[in-house]
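Input structure tokens:
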């Protein structure tokens, strides 16, 4: 629980109070200027799965609406990552939610194979350059709107590749433009 002390009311609801101690890997959003929405999440790298699945979705996770365009994203190191062999890498993608059979949208659509070396300095920042980042110089020639594969809203889907992390914590920040106006929730590749 994110609070140091709890109290249970007569209906059985557990209420936390006291000093805030952790965020439980749950993402949150806030409205920025000009219609841009910023999603922020913190992840303990040792808690990541090798392959993200429906069981890894926190019900409280903020959803990125289908058809949103991701303008930018970055990974910010809060605690230096480690792994047994020093070769763990971070993938950050999207997972489709709210559909009968939930599926991965793109496992590394935001960043693929971010290495321990790239993340090893507290305060370091990796600019994401995956296929879901609009105008990314190193992304594929065609970028996609959120939900292009899963045809649904999505949540962030962090996972490790190659080797499990034994320590480390990162903050992920994603800036996106939700669908609006005549675009509705349509879904097309962005050229």
């Amino acid at each position: 629980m994110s609070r140091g002390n709890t109290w249970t009311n007569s209906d059985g609801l557990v209420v936390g109070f006291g000093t805030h101690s952790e965020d439980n890997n749950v993402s949150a959003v806030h409205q920025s200027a000009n219609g841009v929405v910023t999603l922020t999440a913190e992840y303990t790298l040792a808690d990541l799965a090798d392959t993200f699945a429906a069981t890894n979705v926190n019900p409280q996770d903020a959803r990125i609406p289908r058809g949103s365009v991701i303008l930018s994203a970055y990974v910010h190191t809060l605690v230096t990552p480690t792994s047994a062999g020093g070769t763990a890498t971070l993938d950050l993608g999207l997972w489709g939610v709210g559909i009968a059979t939930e599926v991965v949208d793109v496992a590394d659509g935001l960043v693929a194979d971010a290495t321990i070396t790239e993340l090893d300095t507290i305060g370091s920042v990796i600019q994401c350059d995956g296929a879901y980042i609009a105008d990314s110089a190193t992304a594929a020639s065609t970028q996609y709107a959120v939900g292009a594969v899963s045809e649904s809203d999505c949540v962030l889907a962090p996972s490790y590749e190659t080797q499990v992390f034994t320590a480390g914590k990162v903050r992920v920040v994603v800036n996106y433009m939700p669908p609006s106006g005549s675009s509705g929730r349509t879904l097309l590749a962005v050229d």
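The chain has a mean pLDDT of 84. The two ends are 44 Å apart (CA to CA).
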